[in-house]
Structure prediction request, 397 residues.
Amino acid sequence: MRTIDSLGDLAGKTVFVRSDFNVPLDADRSITDDGRIRAALPTLKRLLAAGAKVAVAAHLGRPKGKVNPDFSLAPVAARLSELLGEDVALASDTVGEDAKAKIAALKNGQAVLLENVRFDAREDSKVDADRESLAQEYAALADAFVSDGFGVVHRKQASVYDIAKLLPSAAGELVFKEIDSLSRATQNPERPYTVVLGGSKVSDKLGVIDNLIEVADRLLIGGGMAYTFLKAQGYEIGTSLLEADQVDAAAGYLAKAAAKGVSLMLPTDVVIAPKFAADAPATVVAADAIPSDQMGLDIGPETSAAYADAISDSKTIVWNGPVGVFEFEAFANGTKAIAQAMQDGEGFSIVGGGDSAAAVRNLGFDESKFSHISTGGGASLEFLEGKVLPGIAVLED
Ligand code: ADP
Ligand code: MG
Prediction:
């Protein structure tokens, strides 16, 4: 993958940077989590220090190809200016007159933020020629392209993929770090290699399970998806989340794991409740003793301890998907135990998945104690599935 070094001396050059600033906003349009803006700073600081003129492009939400002030990047421009300690102006358009004027006015070492790339329907059009025509307009604004929005590299979009074919292009610091870290799980991982999979649905994670069952030593299953596996084992699961059409797939994974010598661990105890609610009374029962009128909302303490042990002596750990409904305090203990074991252990610890990363932050864990917390939910999953990410492939030599 080409890095910023490959672009040579950037002093006085205009660099078009694609970042991922798709941050959550509250009703007042205040940013509630600026993690993605912070993650973009190393690349921007480096380019500014090199004397480049930087035009940053990003999307926010789904304006569906129309200009819509509700999706303006204005809050991002303000926060980015604060974090960089330098004023970053916001162009009122993406490739129009204002963008051109503001880029032309940049001095070396200054940056401008272009308005939401998804205000133009060509950005994520399925028609190649549409995207290419927009990419031509982006390319006309700059001398080089830096791809740093890891959260979008699995998308074949004009500001991610097509532009890279038109300009000297390279991966930014964030994209490089993401691929470097995630590759430690896909290329010759240090063993034992343990994967913790949770989240709500088996069907969301079929691709990852298919791929990881081939390389991991241990697969620890939790979350909503665990109940489809327990069902496949013949247990009654009450009103727990069940994907009836995935029971056969789960049975297939159990058989495949046994045949390959992969230790596939399922909950031996679970925390149940009569309904899906924060204040529902929580009870611990054995995994084969779930009453017909109750649902499993977390892994139990015995399971948490067993999973923590498996994590502790692993050299590589990938965690995707909370093992319980961590949003409700009474059902967050399993997820806490996983995060704790990962941060206490010596292994290379990777957290992938938007909700898992949010769980780490919201449950009060120190992000710096994990080896890598991915900024890209879908992109990190697709990478772990072994898929080719178009926005990465286009940066290969
Ligand atoms: P990620 O974004 O990390 O990939 P997912 O989107 O797959 O994770 O799943 C996260 C969701 O799974 C959380 O909102 C959590 O509440 C839910 N979840 C976890 N365990 C259960 C369960 N036992 N029953 C229902 N939902 C669950
Ligand atoms: Mg999610």
Notes: The first helix runs from residue 35 to 49. Residues 353-355, 377 surround magnesium ion (ligand 2) (CB under 6 Å).
